[in-house]
Amino acid sequence: MTLFIEQCLNGLQFGLLLFLLAAGLTLVFGIMDLVNLAHGSLYMLGAYFAATFAAWTGSFVLGAILALGATLLVGMAVEVIAMRRLYGRDHLDHVLATFGLILFFDELVRLIWGAGGMSLPLPSWLNTSVRVLPGVDYSAYKLSIIVVSLAVAAFLYFLVMRTRLGMLIRAGASNREMVGALGVNIKLLFTLVFGLGAALAGLAGLMQAPILTVQIGMGENILILAFVITVIGGIGSIRGAFVAAILVGFIDTLGRAYFTDLLRLAFTKETAATAAPALSSMLIYLLMAIVLVIRPEGLFPASSK
Amino acid sequence: MIPTLNLRTVVGLLLLLALVLLPVYVELTGSRFLLTLFTRIVILALAAVSLNLILGYGGMMSFGHAAYLGIGGYAVGMLAFEGITTGFVQWPVALLVSAFFAFVIGALSLRTRGVYFIMITLAFAQMAYYIVAGLARYGGDDGLTIQKRSQFIAPINLSNKVQFYYICLVLLCAAIYLVWRIVNSRFGMAIQGARSNDTRMRAIGFPTYRYKLVCFVIAGTLCGLAGALLANHTDFVSPAMMYWTRSGDLIIMVVLGGMGSTFGPLFGAVALLVLEEVLSGITEYWQIILGPLLLLVVLFARGGIDGLLGKAPHG
């Protein structure tokens, strides 16, 4: 039972982390109609920046804040240099151009930081465990990821639904030309939204960094997951992304934890032990295929289109 | 149906001629490496030709085309592992299994469109990737070494590198011809019509879903053939054959060469793989050049290499 609660918390934590990535992706897609494969590269950059800045400043929090700012700037620069020219193009062009960006960023990271990974050590005050329920201890750091992600999700909700900027973002999502015609600086808005998405990806990357090693290509696997989430949730819908991210986080984590036992009921021990990891990574794609077959526009289709 | 003689056809045929003469050059200079490289190029060009059929002509943006490469390859690899080395069984099985998977994946994916289609094909390819990675009997993540290439009757010997190269080249030419015939048939016209305006095609009575599905299956089967060849070429199959970046590579080849053109995928495959070879010779960090180059092609050379050879004949 204790283990189960712990796994559920892990699922929640992973789901929220995925939400940070998927939110940026879905924002950029909903508003700029842009498929950005390079989103995973920004996640990777966030982790590398955090590891570097934390080593320089000697402080985890300071390093994280600097890394967040740096990814925001990189994101805005990428938008101004490359993405801006891709709006209104075919989705295939987006896929191709951002695929090129992935190659570029992966190699750039290899050039700057070398091919070996990095690690981001946790400060001692986070490297402990907290009693969340009577008899249940949980890693303080993972708990803080949950708290930070929930706070960011709440902030996003507030930003998009309650502020003037959010109003413009929503207006831009439903009709770009009209917003531009009403005198809103649409270029600046897009740059900001892309930067925001980049910062969210960077945040996810730097929070994940102490748990996994920081390495090249770390963004690519998780990017596919984030895409699956945006598609399940309905492209352009932040609410959909949130629900789908939690769902995927739980399915992935619990699948990894319990799928072996489930399979053992039907197959021999060896078959279960070898097939389970592969099959549990498949579950999410299966979920996506089912959702798309039943509801081709995702669970919460963005109302505008 | 008479092929018009224009610059792009001439360049395409010249490239084919160069490919035909390549083994002669290899004999003269003795650089075996070139032969290996170009066998690979020819095989991947075959895969790109099949992708071009659905991507270029059909407008179906499949981001999971490498799945069939892996499925065809694994059909050969698994049968060889189980002791069935005759190509007369291996190759038809590879084609049938690829066709079957293409049918299932296509039937489900074609219900969606746009980005959803890109993503669902990607998801299916990733599923195939994980299934194969979980097959412990066949090496799982590490892949499977093929001890013996596909066996055919007497004069055909795939272990002979020059002969194998020519077999691949003949199959590539056959595929280019096949796709050209398909595209210029009534069926192909309907497919291209559906790319331009699906609703209108349905309104005038074409069951576009079925047309597209058949097209998708043909492309998957052709790519399965490329997979069977690739398995024989490398004597090795691994899940990496169907990883999503490989699907990305295939899309790059098609777009770089020029979508919806007869020889485009061939141009693209040659250009991309030769470029990779040259750049990796210059610097270890060659992708740092390739990445922005791709971006530039997308931004400024929409028609790809084919587009540089003159105005497109249609659209």
Overall description:
The complex is a heterodimer of chains A (305) and B (315). Chain A has a single domain, classed as ABC transporter involved in vitamin B12 uptake, BtuC (Orthogonal Bundle). Chain A contains 11 helices and 2 strands; from the N terminus they run H-H-H-H-E-E-H-H-H-H-H-H-H. Chain A has helices spanning 2-32, 39-57, 60-81, 91-113, 140-162, 164-174, 176-181, 186-208, 218-233, 238-266, 269-294; strands spanning 129-133, 136-139. The mean pLDDT of chain A is 86. By secondary structure, chain B is mostly helical. Chain B has a domain at 40-251. Chain B is built from 13 helices and 2 strands. Chain B is globular, with a radius of gyration of 19 Å. Chains A and B meet through helix 4, helix 9 and helix 11 of A and helix 5, helix 10 and helix 12 of B.
Classify the fold: give the CATH topology of chain A.
ABC transporter involved in vitamin B12 uptake, BtuC
Please indicate the count of domains of chain A.
Answer: 1
Mean pLDDT over the full residue set of chain A: 86
> Which strand order do you get reading across the main beta sheet of chain A?
1-2
Number of strands of chain A: 2
Output the number of helix runs of chain B: 13
Largest interface comes to: A-B, 47 and 45 residues
Largest beta sheet: strand ordering of chain B: 1-2
- Rg of chain B, rounded, reads 19 Å
- The counted number of beta strands of chain B is 2
Q: How many individual helices of chain A?
A: 11
Biggest β-sheet description of chain B: 2 strands, antiparallel
Q: On the 0-100 scale, what is the average pLDDT of chain B?
A: 89
Spans where pLDDT lies below 50 across 5 or more residues of chain A: none
Topology at a glance:
The complex is a heterodimer of chains A (305) and B (315).
Chain A: H1 2-32, H2 39-57, H3 60-81, H4 91-113, E1 129-133, E2 136-139, H5 140-162, H6 164-174, H7 176-181, H8 186-208, H9 218-233, H10 238-266, H11 269-294
Antiparallel strand pairs in A: 1-2
Helix pairs in contact in A: 1-5, 1-8, 1-9, 1-10, 2-3, 2-4, 2-8, 2-9, 3-8, 5-6, 9-10, 9-11, 10-11
Chain B: H1 7-29, H2 32-57, H3 66-81, H4 87-109, H5 115-133, E1 144-145, H6 161-183, H7 186-196, H8 198-203, H9 208-234, E2 236-237, H10 244-257, H11 264-282, H12 287-300, H13 304-308
Antiparallel strand pairs in B: 1-2
Helix pairs in contact in B: 1-2, 1-6, 2-6, 2-9, 2-10, 2-11, 3-4, 3-5, 3-9, 4-9, 7-9, 10-11
